[in-house]
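S1.2 Input.
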Amino acid sequence: MRFDLNFAFATRDSQLPFKLEINHQWDAKVTGIYGHSGGGKSSLVEVLLGLKSRALVRGHCRVGSALLFATADGVWLSTRERRCAWVPQEAALLPHLSSLGNIKLTAKTGADLDAVITALQLEGLLSKKPRQLSGGERQRVALARALLAPHDMLVLDEPLAALDSAQRLATLEFLRRRVAVENTPMWYVSHRWDEILTICDHAMVIEEGRLRWHGPPRLWAEAKSEYNSQ
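S1.3 Output.
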């Protein structure tokens, strides 16, 4: 999938000013977004999803043949029109629905519901409400919901942060296998490089609102040592 991003996003908060600038074109199936907290990873995701005010964004974003926005031409697709399945950091499950209700709410017709539930080990959680779940359990339910929803792109923002080590490795392996047979592109946001290295074929390192480095994840270790030596 071809990506073409050339935009700037800036807040208008004089107390906490922040600016994110991205100008990058690349081809990838799974793009990793890496960096420390506050560097701009989630802001990049929210611009991509159309969750930031269009008044604060200037530039364009194209994913394959789809132009998500081009502010100079007055193009701005709504979040729904962008057809992105999203797993936010806080899971954002509907509190009045059970886990199964949340998963089935947006599931596409013919979705492999049972296979995803089994792979994410959710069988014992299906009747529980979000308030009855741990943070890691909520994340796995949110991930199942996103995987089963109709989408042209999958966006995962720190999807494994609340999982223990065993669950994190199992879920990462499931995602890796699923990516191998899926045709839709994925964005994977994480502050853990081992996750980026496992599942992504292209990585972007974001620091202080800027694209510090990009390329195949396997090359970052050498590049990082060069940056640190400067």
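S1.4 Remarks. Helices lie at 41-49, 99-105, 113-119, 135-148, 165-181, 193-199, 220-229.
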